[in-house]
């Protein structure tokens, strides 16, 4: 009997005691409520061709306090690449949570450390240069409201240094025991922009800070 217990203990150690953790699946959806979209798509008089953003520093919360933080937490969500729209977090079996909190974008410490690999690879198209750092949120498309020759709008929102720091915190109530599905209400975000006046942002600036704050408010659990 003792020998069998020792064998079971060794097996548990070698397998990392997988039974003591559980995967929490997080999926991102373009849209809010009953409206969900696949790119490219049209919303009103706007055509949307690209929506891409960084999620980082993911935490699960209960009673307003963090109960678990994802290690090495950087995810690039790209609605033109279905393989990026979901990931699993290996959380402890015993934790209980009622909210998920994350950063929309990349923190200043990571920016100043230089570009990295994986989802932070500059080849992903979300990095300007070491002076400007990562693009936190990117959306591109066309609208007849835009007073340019091709009617294109381009919002590349980033910047990590004051006064143009664009990093935002998103805090969402979720139901424990369910897969977490987070929607980005892109229609509300675009409706908040006067595109006859603002339609081209490709560097850190005050307007990028304003739009980043608006984007962060457009996430909700579905």
Major sheet: 10 strands, mixed
Radius of gyration: 20 Å
Distance between the termini: 50 Å
Q: Unreliable runs, pLDDT <50, ≥5 residues?
A: 5-9, 11-19
**Cα shape:** globular
Assess the beta-strand content as a share of residues: 35-45%
**How many helical elements?**
4
If you average the pLDDT, what whole number results?
91
Walkthrough of the structure:
The chain has 222 residues and is α+β, with helices and mostly antiparallel strands. The protein has one domain (16-221). The chain has 4 helices and 15 strands. The protein has helices at residues 2-14, 108-112, 186-191, 206-216; strands spanning 21-32, 35-36, 41-43, 46-62, 65-69, 74-78, 86-92, 99-104, 127-129, 133-142, 152-158, 168-173, 180-184, 200-201, 219-221. The strands form 2 sheets. Strands 3, 4, 5, 6, 8, 9, 10, 11, 12 and 14 form a 10-stranded mixed sheet that branches. Strands 1, 2, 7, 13 and 15 form a 5-stranded mixed sheet that branches. It is globular. Mean pLDDT is 91; it is low at 5-9 and 11-19.
């Amino acid at each position: 009997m003792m020998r069998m217990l020792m064998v079971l203990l060794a097996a548990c150690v070698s397998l990392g005691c997988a039974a003591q953790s559980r995967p929490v699946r997080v999926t991102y959806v373009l849209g809010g409520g009953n409206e969900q979209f696949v790119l490219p798509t049209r919303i009103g008089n706007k055509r949307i061709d690209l929506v891409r953003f960084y999620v980082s520093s993911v935490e699960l919360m209960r009673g307003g306090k963090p109960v678990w933080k994802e290690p090495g937490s950087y995810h690039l969500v790209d609605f033109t690449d279905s393989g990026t729209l979901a990931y699993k977090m290996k959380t402890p079996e015993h934790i209980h949570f009622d909210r998920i909190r994350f950063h929309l974008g990349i923190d200043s410490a990571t920016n100043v450390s230089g570009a990295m690999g994986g989802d932070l690879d500059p080849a992903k198209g979300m990095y300007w240069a070491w002076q400007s750092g990562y693009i936190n949120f990117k959306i591109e498309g066309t609208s007849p409201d835009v007073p340019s020759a091709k009617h294109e709008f381009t919002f590349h929102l980033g910047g990590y240094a004051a006064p143009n720091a664009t990093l935002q915190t998103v805090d969402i109530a979720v139901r424990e025991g369910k897969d977490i599905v987070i929607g980005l209400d892109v229609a509300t975000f675009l409706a908040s922009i006067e595109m006859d006046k603002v339609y081209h942002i490709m560097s850190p600036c005050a307007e990028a800070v304003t739009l980043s704050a608006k984007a962060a408010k457009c996430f909700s659990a579905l």
